[in-house]
Each structure stands twice: as C-alpha cells, then as structure tokens.
From TrEMBL:
This is Long-chain acyl-CoA synthetase. Gene3D superfamilies: 3.30.300.30, N-terminal domain of ligase-like. GO terms for molecular function: long-chain fatty acid-CoA ligase activity. Keywords: Ligase, Membrane, Transmembrane, Transmembrane helix. InterPro entries: AMP-bd_C (IPR025110), AMP-bd_C_sf (IPR045851), AMP-binding_CS (IPR020845), AMP-dep_synth/lig_dom (IPR000873), ANL_N_sf (IPR042099), ATP-dep_AMP-bd_enzyme (IPR050237). The lineage of its organism: Bacteria, Bacillati, Actinomycetota, Actinomycetes, Micrococcales. It is an enzyme of class 6 (ligase). Residues 34-424 form the AMP-dependent synthetase/ligase domain. The chain crosses the membrane at residues 264-285. Its EC number is 6.2.1.3.
Length: 566
C-alpha cells in the first residue's frame, strides 16, 4: 500500500532557522529533566512565589518520589491520577510517575465531585496524588473506586518560609488565603513521605519511546469522558516541534517560561511541563492567573516565552498599564484555545517589544499542531502554519477520503508524530475519528496558497470559553435535572472576554408558569465546574428540532443571538 504525501505549501513560509521536518525522537519524557539536570545542574528549574528549585534538586526529588511511589505498589503500566494546581510538586509527581513506566492522568482540581468521579470511573486509577483541598472528594468516592493510596499535597510547603509564616498570621486576610490554599486531611500519605526515600536504583527499568505516558481528558462532543492516549513519542515530539518553531529562544538559564496556564490542560502541560524542561528553562509557576502576581515576577525575570490565551494577554496588558509596569522582555507569547483579536496583538507587541502569535491544537495532538511564524510574515486571523513534521489535508467532511480543491473550505485532517494513538478504552470512538492514519479534527478550514490555515467553522459543537472546552450535551443534561426544566439547548455566543460564553435556552415544564433563571444557574453550579455554568439562561416556548427530533443548535444559536441584540 502506498502512502499519500500531500503537498506542503507552508514550508516556504517558515521563518529562517525553522526546519522542514522533525528528526524522529528517541528516549522518553524522563530524559528531558535528566538531560537538563546534567547540562544545567545549578540553574533554577522552578520558581514558586520566589522560591527556586535547581535542576539538580528537581532531578533528586523526582527520583526520590519515584522510589516512594514504587514502595506504595506503583508499577510500570499502572495509571496514577494527579489532581493538583500548578506547583512544584506537580512537576515532580508527573516525572516520578513516568520514571516508573506508569501512566499519568491529569485532572482539573476545580471539578465538581461528580465530574471528577466520572473520569475516575473511566480510567480506574488506584493511586492518586491530590491537593489537600480535593482529598475529601476523592476519599468519598464509592467503594468500587476506592484508592490503594492517596498522596496528599500541601502546596504551601513549596512556598518560601516568609510566605508560609505570613499565611499563619492571626488576621482575616491571612486566614482566607490559607484556607484557599490548604485544607486539613487525614488517612493519606503526605507528599513529604515520598521524598523521604532514597533515590530509585539506576537499574530500575525505564519507559520506552512508544509507551503510554499520559491520558489527557477531552470533552469531545458527547460530554462523556474521553481520555486521549498520548505516548512519550507524542509528547517529546511536540516539545521538540515547539523548540524548532522558536529558534531565537536559546536553551539554558536565560530562557524563562511562565506557567500561567493550568498544567492539567494539554496546552499548559506540553509547553510548561515538557517544552520548558527540555529548554533548561526557569519555569515560573502560578497556582492561578493573577495579573498582579505575574507583574511582580516580570520585574525580576520577564518571560522569554509566555503560553497564554487572549483573556490572559488582555488582562496582563491592561494591568501593566494601570500599574506602570513594563512588559519588555517578553520575546514570544503564543496564544491558543480561541481566536486572537488583532486589536490585542498590536498594543501587546508594542508594550512588550516581542511577538504575540496565534496557534492551534487539540488534546488529541499533544496538543500543538500549528502556529503563526514568529516574524513579520505572520498572518492575523489565521492559526498559522503546520509545525515541522506535521502534515495536513483539507477534505470533504461527508467524504473524508476526498480532498477539496485548493483554497476551498473543508475538514482539516492531520498526521504527525504528535497525533495520539486513540481514546483510552474506546475503540469505536477511536475508529470514528481516523481516516486511515489521518486524524479528523472536526474543524472546517481554508488553507491559502502560502499554507496559512484559517478556521472557518466547527463540525463539533464544542464551546470554547476561556480556553476550556465545554460539551453542550453535558450542560444540557445538568439543566434537565432541574424540576422546572423540561428541555434545554446550550450554545456558545461570542464574548470579548472569553472567546465564547455558555448560553442556554430552556423550555419549562408544563406545570411551571415562571422560574428564577438565576436559581437554575445556581442549580447547575452544584453539578458542574463554574466555567461550564451558563452565563445566561433564556426561557423559550420551544426548541427547533429536526424531523427525527434532534435539537438544531445552529438555529438555537441564531435565535439567542437575536435575543441578545434586542
């Protein structure tokens, strides 16, 4: 069987120094930190509230934590859950699990108990490394999800001594800050216990390049948990592609990366956990995005590389102006997850003296597939060019083996070393998103003669709000559980702050004359994490449906757009 090699017009648009293809990777993610520790042992690897961890110390902690996990019974191939915000322990836990040949499963620590439980039901992990604020939720899982061990992490212990002492002050502000960061726990293995072990023996087996490394959950279109199975090859390749895209950023101590995006998200994970460590960079960690906290850090160590989403870049720019803080030193900011407005790019680049470019990806692709060139030939309104080693085609969505004419819109399908092997434990769903060895993105695009890709529409009905995916069916299911709601349809409407906002149209039960829509929102808040809760709820008489009874969300969206304008 011959392999189809499509034309690659984008190669001619690459910036000087960016290679056409990627050298096939070898080894595993584990070698990323080990290599940087050998090359830059005394350089700062992590910075958290000002406290620094060197690469030598990071490597030591990873080996000790791996030995501690092995003592708890974690073996190669086992699945281990991480439920943590951005903190030094997160990086150590991630690489310690991988060092044993086990598989990481990342979770949003802000998920509701129900959302978290659904993912655990899917992957079945029996060991969890959990933020103290979430331990109680995991301990209350039903008996069939009972954990062999829960390792509890108090993230305040990674802070500088002065910060920890300030949190203990007997004043309201300190108490509130302390309660937001930590909760007392019992019946767990403290994180520090793992680090009390001797290093893992050097002879301990290591993961292979094609071993499963990570199960990354993506909402998909159904709202049911689907874990993208990503191998060491996938993630190491994507980190290498990112390095190749920014040859102007040099490896070593001068490279500074800011982790303002959550590392449980595929975008933050690859560019902070993998890319930054492979660069020997100083990774500055923020447990949540706080523009004042970021600006304080910028005064000392501005980021040479800033992964962000448009709302973060916008808030940072506005706050910098208010406080009179310079953004100079941000060499490259890459924006993903939603459209990047050109009216934000111009002032941001003027303030930083660097570049703010748009990229594109999916969890199934580790996640980065494309980015605009970091140079003057970038094209606003596009998601840029495929990264080195990435191949793309534009096909008829109804006949995905047939390419459309050049310049015509069609479904984007891709292949490359960063593309996943399938959904964990879901062969039918996996088969549905592949055409041969090409992955169907579900996005309708146009590619111009220079290879720049423009997103035109989405086949999938995902709502992307603030960089996070929301499946309409999941929100609709929560709405229908309200006793006053007979039916519901959820869509995304444009938002200047978050790209899209979640908006619902509901049909009331016949027995209900009127309802408090804010009460409906509060009801949903008890089921779903806050970013999935509809920002607005409209009561309608009926929902437009097809002949077979399927809600026509496109028509719902048009109707709600009209209502918001009136």
């Amino acid at each position: 069987m011959t392999t189809y090699d499509p034309p690659r017009p984008w190669i001619a648009s690459y910036e000087p120094g960016v290679p056409e293809d990627l050298t096939p990777v070898t080894g595993s993610l584990v070698e990323i930190v080990e290599s940087s520790a050998k090359e830059y042992p005394d350089a700062p690897a992590l910075q958290f509230f000002g406290r620094e961890t060197t690469y030598r110390s990071l490597d030591e902690q990873i080996e000790r934590a791996a030995a501690g996990l092995a003592k708890l019974g974690v073996r190669a191939g086992d699945r281990v859950a991480i439920v943590l915000p951005n903190c030094p322990q997160h990086i150590v836990a991630f690489y310690a699990i991988l060092r044993l040949g086990a598989v990481v499963i990342e979770h949003n620590p802000l998920y509701t108990p129900r959302e978290l439980r659904k993912q655990y039901e899917d992957h079945g992990a029996k060991h969890s490394i959990v933020w103290t604020k979430v331990v109680d939720t995991v301990q209350k899982f039903p008996s069939d999800l009972k954990q062999s061990a829960i390792i509890s992490v108090d993230i305040t212990k990674a802070m500088p001594l002065g910060t920890r002492l300030a949190l203990k002050l007997p004043i309201r502000k300190a108490r509130e800050a302390r309660e937001a960061l930590h909760a007392p726990v019992h019946g767990t293995v403290p994180w520090e216990t793992l680090l009390s072990h001797e290093r893992l023996p050097a002879t301990h087996p290591r993961p292979a390049t094609d071993d499963l490394a990570l199960i990354q959950y993506t909402s998909g279109t159904t709202g049911t948990p689907k874990g993208a199975s990503l191998t060491h090859r996938n993630l190491v390749s994507n980190a290498a592609q990112a390095r190749a895209w920014v040859p102007q950023i040099k490896k070593g101590e001068g490279c500074v990366v800011y982790a303002v995006l959550p590392m449980f998200h595929a975008y933050g994970l690859t560019l902070c956990l993998a890319f930054a460590m492979s660069m020997g960079a100083r990774l500055v960690l923020f447990p949540r995005f706080d523009p004042d906290m970021v600006l304080d850090a910028i005064k000392k160590h501005p980021p040479t590389f800033l992964p962000a989403v448009p709302p973060i870049a916008d808030r940072l720019l506005k706050r910098a102006r208010e406080k009179g803080v310079s953004l100079e030193g941000i060499d490259v900011a890459i924006s993903g997850a939603m459209a990047l407005p050109h009216e934000l790019v111009v002032p941001f680049e003027a303030a930083s003296g660097g570049y703010l470019v748009e990229g594109y990806g999916l969890s199934e692709c580790s996640p980065v597939l494309m980015a605009n060139p970091v140079g003057d030939n970038r094209v606003p309104g596009t998601v840029g060019l495929p990264l080195p080693g990435t191949e793309c085609r534009v096909v008829d969505p109804d006949e995905p083996t047939r390419d459309v004419a050049p310049g015509e819109p069609g479904e984007l399908i891709v292949r490359g070393p960063q593309v996943f092997s399938g959904y964990y434990g879901k062969p039918e769903e996996t088969e549905a998103v592949f055409v041969g060895d090409w992955f169907r993105t579900g996005d309708i695009v146009e590619i111009d003669e220079k290879g720049f890709v423009r997103i035109v529409d989405r086949i999938k009905e995902l709502i992307i709000t603030g960089g996070f995916n929301v499946a309409p069916t999941e929100v609709e299911s929560a709405l229908r559980q309200h006793p006053a709601v007979d039916d519901a349809a959820v869509v995304g409407l444009p938002s200047s702050k978050s790209g899209e906002e979640v908006v619902a149209a509901v049909v009331l039960d016949e027995s209900v004359d009127d309802v408090d829509v804010d009460a409906i929102r509060e009801f949903v808040r008890g089921i779903l994490t806050p970013y999935k809760v509809p920002r607005r709820v409209f009561v309608v008489d009926e929902l437009p449906k097809s002949l077979i009874g399927k809600v026509l969300r496109r028509q719902v969206r048009e109707k709600l757009l009209d209502l918001t304008k009136s």
